[in-house]
Write a structure and sequence with these properties.
With about 120 residues, the protein is an all-beta fold. The protein is about 0% helix and about 60% strand. It is built from no helices and 11 strands.
């Protein structure tokens, strides 16, 4: 089993910053991809950002230039630095890990941006 534990969510004013962290543990095989997704009530989960083992990143257009994803391979941890936050960024943010065996999700952390 693989466990993903997220932290760092909370309430912030528009224009502010937050950093999310996700630590992976358990029976992890070779990691192919780690990333962050988000979901609001009534909507599908959407990609925010992903990062491959050697650092290749991918971002949703809505967060480019404002969010930065990074990872610590030695600690199987992925981070999401969020700046210039907007009320539209309000969502539950989920960590995702894909290894050679499966696709795993964290429990989610709430990010609320007030106007």
């Amino acid at each position: 089993q693989v466990q993903l534990v997220e932290s760092g969510g909370g309430l912030v004013q528009a224009g502010g910053s937050l950093t999310l962290s996700c630590a992976a543990s358990g029976s992890i095989l070779r990691i192919n991809l780690m990333g962050w997704y988000r979901q609001t009530p009534g909507n599908e989960r959407e990609l925010v950002a992903t990062i491959r083992t050697f650092g290749n990143t991918n971002y949703a257009d809505s967060v480019k230039g404002r969010f930065t994803i990074s990872r610590d391979n030695a600690k199987n941890t992925v981070f999401l630095q969020m700046s210039s936050l907007k009320p539209g960024d309000t969502a539950v943010y989920y960590c995702n890990l894909k290894d050679t065996r499966g696709d795993y999700w964290g429990q989610g952390t709430q990010v609320t941006v007030s106007s």
